[in-house]
Specification:
By secondary structure, this protein is of the alpha+beta class. Helices cover 21% and strands 22% of the residues. The protein has helices spanning 48-59, 151-160, 172-181, 183-193, 243-254, and strands spanning 6-11, 71-81, 97-107, 122-129, 135-141, 206-208, 212-215, 221-224, 227-228. The protein has a single domain, classed as Catalase core domain (Catalase HpII,  Chain A, domain 1, Beta Barrel), CATH 2.40.180. The protein starts with 5 loop residues before the first strand and ends with a helix. The longest helix has 12 residues, at 48-59.
Length: 258
């Protein structure tokens, strides 16, 4: 959902771009509960543990870092609501006023030292601290739709896209077979391809992974989906393996990003 509410972030450079596990969970796991394993009922079913372990099995163990979106940088800031969203939601965070937030900008993938690439999916996790002591947490990405409709689909896509040790690229036959079995992913990839990424974090639009039901004071319920739209263009001369993060930090040093 796009609206006139605004947020601003401030960053501090760390010696390493570390994970902030409290902000967001693994992308797509939050879309719904995973099935409980019941081996005696048939083939082993996908569980949260089996899902997350697959990242290590495919890409190795990296102690101290998240299993996905391992490369990232934390930020602090504020979220200021104009009150306009109270038309559809009675949630306290949408009442007029400002609340503190903790955020994390990240790149998808399991390697904490991966080189920044424009096409790599960017993530933004935000934790809202509401006046009544509650915490709101949301995970967003800079692609308009997520490639997979279920955790099982994500799991299967990881297997199909595993790089071949000889070529460093996924096996085309494996990916073709996966897409044939998952037409929803093939359709999503066309939508994603039609929306090329912006130059940097600061001018990226981030979309929520999930839709939610918002309830207004009058009891009316509306399905909504977040989007955070940038108020500025990215401006940087940063280069090198960390150019996306360096550009963000450089821009924040000149003033808040909103």
């Amino acid at each position: 959902m796009s609206h006139d509410n605004q947020r601003g972030f401030g960053l501090n450079r760390r010696d390493a771009l570390v994970g902030l596990a409290a902000v967001t969970g693994v992308v797509a796991v939050g879309a719904g509960g995973l099935a409980v394993a019941s081996d005696w009922l048939g083939p082993p079913r996908l569980t949260a543990a089996r899902f997350t372990d697959r990242f290590e099995q495919l890409y190795g163990r990296h102690d101290g870092f998240r299993r996905n979106h391992a490369k990232g940088v934390a930020a602090s800031g504020t979220f200021t609501s104009t009150g306009a969203a109270t038309e559809v939601s009675k949630a306290s965070v949408f009442r007029g006023g400002t609340v503190p937030v903790i955020a994390r900008f990240s790149l998808s993938g399991t390697l904490p030292d991966q080189k920044d690439q424009p096409a790599t999916v960017r993530g933004l996790g935000v934790l809202f601290q509401t006046p009544d002591g509650q915490q709101w947490r949301t995970a967003m990405v800079n692609i308009p739709v997520f490639p997979d409709s279920t955790p099982q689909g994500f799991y299967d896509r990881m297997l199909a896209s595993k790089p071949d040790p000889k070529t460093g690229k996924p096996d085309p036959a494996a990916m073709a077979a996966f897409l044939a079995a998952h037409p929803e992913t093939a359709a999503a990839m066309k939508v994603i391809k039609a929306a090329p990424p912006s130059p940097g974090f600061a001018d990226s639009t981030f979309w929520g992974l999930n839709a939610f039901l918002a309830t207004a004071e009058n009891g009316h319920t509306t399905p909504i989906r977040w989007s955070l739209v940038p108020a500025q263009q990215a401006s940087t001369t940063a280069q090198g393996d960390d150019f996306l993060f360096d550009a963000l930090i450089e821009q924040v040093q000149r003033g808040p990003v909103s």
